[in-house]
Specification:
ATP binding, 11 helices, alpha/beta, Oligopep_ABC_C, 2 domains, ATP-binding, ABC_transporter-like_CS, 11 strands
Length: 333
């Protein structure tokens, strides 16, 4: 039975993943000796939980740090500060050998289905690689497991003898999903898995992910900038702006009652079937996104916010609230 069918709210369970004040900075090098002259603050002091069986959606503009969070959680990027707890284990400083033991439970689906598969290997070898590396099964059982993985993502077993270039984008992403499932993970980071696909194919992949979640009791962090896809698959949504989480709440609370000015602007651009039925005016954000190498003082959004006050330029608002948390002085007041 999946978590969604339990009577208790999912947030009353112990978190599967807990992130505390996570920072991921990239050094800016200059000169022949590559002197560090600054840092790109891609992820800057964020905290959140992901609970068993839920899907946490992560949305925001391109460059806000969404994908960096996903890569940092699976340790493809090294965190600069903060802690990452997975199943109550602090994996922040794990070595490569220690992380290998965690990888079977913590997997990632990459954004680009065209570059995430080795073009020189057949599908059977791509799917068998993690099985052999982690010694999940051996001998003939490897190919039996490969056949089963293809069936799980709705692809014929005969496809295992083909190469990646023989597939469409949607089929490649199904293979990427199969690879992520190969080690029986508990949590999968979905790094914009449908953004490179046609709309009709996006719907198929989203339905597949939901079916697999129900069947295998999976937990997802779903990263995306398409609000329709994120709304469809997510139980809760966290909104990011320039390396910070500015609002986090249950999906329908975000869409019915957005509280942060940036969230309101994002949702005002959300397309509706009949624009004449739109209940709120379109909010156009003025100005450009500041550089993450030199973010504004105080609230990161104050340079573009129509509600900005003097305190917004001087102090950084904290993310406050239980079921619906917001980082905004206007909401606090």
């Amino acid at each position: 039975m999946s978590v969604r069918q339990w009577e208790i709210p999912v947030t009353q369970l112990d978190p599967l993943l807990r992130v505390e004040r996570l920072k991921t900075y990239y050094p800016i090098k200059k000169g022949i000796i590559s002197k560090t002259v600054g840092y790109v603050k891609a992820v800057d002091d964020i905290s959140f939980d992901i609970f068993p069986g839920e899907t946490l959606g992560l949305v925001g503009e391109s460059g806000c740090g969404k994908s960096t969070i996903g890569k940092t959680l699976v340790r493809l990027e090294t965190p600069t500060a903060g802690r990452i707890y997975f199943q109550d284990r602090d994996i922040t400083d794990y070595s490569n050998r220690e992380m290998k033991k965690v990888r079977s439970d913590l997997q990632i689906i990459f954004q680009d289905p065209y570059s995430s598969l080795n073009p020189r290997k057949q599908i059977k070898d791509i799917l068998a690689e993690p099985l052999n590396a982690h010694r999940i099964v051996a001998g003939r059982e490897v190919q039996n497991r490969v056949d089963h993985l293809l069936e799980m993502v709705r692809l014929p077993k005969s496809y295992k003898n083909r190469y990646p270039h023989e597939f469409s984008g949607g089929q490649r992403q199904r293979i990427g999903i199969a690879r992520a499932l190969s080690l029986n993970p508990k949590l999968i980071i979905c790094d914009e898995p449908v953004s490179a696909l046609d709309v009709s194919i996006q719907a198929q992949i989203l339905n597949l992910l939901k079916d697999l979640q129900e069947e295998l009791q999976l937990t997802y962090l779903f990263i995306g900038h398409g609000l329709g896809a994120v709304r469809y698959i997510s139980d809760r949504i966290a909104v990011m702006y320039l390396g910070k989480i500015v609002e986090i709440a249950r999906t329908e609370d975000i869409f019915r009652n957005p509280q942060h000015p940036y969230t309101r602007a994002l949702l005002s651009a959300y397309p509706v079937p009949n624009p004449h039925l739109r209940s709120k005016e379109r909010i156009v954000i003025q100005g450009d996104v500041p550089s993450p190498a030199n973010p504004p003082s105080g609230c990161r959004f104050h340079t573009r916010c129509p509600l900005a006050k003097s305190i917004c330029r001087e102090q950084e608002p904290l993310l406050k609230g239980n079921d619906h948390a917001v980082a905004c002085f206007e909401v606090d007041s």
